[in-house]
Amino acid sequence: xxxxxxxxxxxxxxxxxxxxxxxxxxxxxxxxxxxxxxxxxxxxxxxxxxxxxxxxxxxxxxxxxxxxxxxxxxxxxxxx
Length: 80
Known about the structure:
This protein has 80 residues and is mainly beta. 10% of the residues lie in helices and 29% in strands.
């Protein structure tokens, strides 16, 4: 299945996937374990997670935003 990128606001220490799942009502299998929780902006307490597209994302939650595009990033072939 495909996963969607979401950003979350989290005050305090960096959250675990289990904490994110509990706070936003996800099942553990809905979150990408390999991606984990990635810090985006420490000053704004902003993190990102990958969520299964079939998961129910709380639309009224003020601390989760998305989905955002998650394009594959590959290195350029730099030949001199």
